[in-house]
């Protein structure tokens, strides 16, 4: 099968706070977040993203201004670029105003959600099983005007502080992991947003549907461990056309945007 080619490295202008929600979340019910703070509604949105521009749009929904204020505090603190303790002391209160408070009864982390045999679809083609890292993504039509350097932008590569991984297990379970580092969330905060569910493949039509069942955001917020449950989010079930050639997996959204993503299989040792 022919795999989409991704060769150009393009620069994206940061999405504005007034940007629309990503198409994958339109119409989806999500938990309410406190106004002006980053929280579960943002993480549910991020959990349904594949590319970084989608993540930017999710964070723009009531969260971007709070993150900007936190970054401004860190810049004014006089702390060194790697001095997290200094930033925590100087901007601890600002950080607490940036994120939702921890729930009174936090969830336990589910490090291996696909170990639950009831989550998967039952079986998938052997060639799709493994751990895949996002290499590139085509530009959504509404984002093309924000791409600098080319009149006909075709694709972008993930920025250094964004990492997207897709795990597919033999029992038909998928686990999508998005790492949001402190470059995005501010010093002392870093989360891995995870979603999981059934990886439903139609081999006759070369399509795959992601039937998300739940998710979590796991990491640290303001220097403290945090597990945010996303089970109350209403996830959509995106359908993709897939193309597999060796260690390269291309998936194209079956939507008007026809956005395409390219993943590369990780070596077994790196995937662990």
UniProtKB/TrEMBL annotation:
Keywords: Signal. Residues 1-19 form the signal peptide. It comes from the Bacteria. Residues 98-118 are annotated as: Disordered. This is Uncharacterized protein. It comes from Cystobacter ferrugineus.
């Amino acid at each position: 099968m022919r795999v989409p080619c991704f060769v150009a490295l393009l620069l994206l202008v940061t999405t504005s706070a007034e940007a629309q929600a990503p198409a994958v979340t339109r119409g989806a019910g999500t938990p309410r977040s406190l106004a002006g703070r980053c929280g579960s509604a943002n993480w549910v949105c991020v959990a349904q993203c594949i590319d970084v521009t989608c993540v930017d749009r999710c964070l723009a929904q009531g969260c971007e201004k709070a993150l900007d204020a936190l970054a401004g505090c860190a810049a004014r603190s006089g702390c060194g670029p790697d001095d997290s303790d200094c930033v925590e002391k100087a901007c601890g209160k600002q950080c607490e105003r940036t994120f939702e408070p921890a729930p009174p009864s936090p969830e336990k982390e589910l490090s291996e959600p696909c170990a639950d045999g009831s989550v998967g679809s039952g079986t998938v083609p052997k060639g799709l099983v493994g751990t895949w890292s996002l290499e590139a993504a085509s530009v959504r039509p509404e984002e093309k005007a924000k791409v600098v350097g080319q009149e006909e932008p075709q694709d972008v590569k993930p920025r250094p502080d964004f990492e997207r991984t897709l795990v597919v297990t033999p029992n038909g379970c998928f686990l999508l992991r998005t790492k949001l580092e402190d470059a995005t969330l501010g010093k002392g905060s870093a989360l891995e947003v995870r979603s999981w569910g059934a990886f439903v493949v139609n081999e006759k039509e070369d399509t795959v549907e992601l039937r998300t069942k739940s998710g979590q955001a796991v990491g640290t917020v303001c220097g403290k461990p945090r597990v945010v449950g996303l089970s109350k989010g209403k996830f959509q079930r995106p359908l993709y056309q897939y193309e597999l050639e060796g260690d390269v997996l291309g998936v194209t959204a079956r939507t008007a945007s026809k956005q395409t993503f390219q993943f590369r299989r990780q070596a077994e040792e790196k995937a662990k």
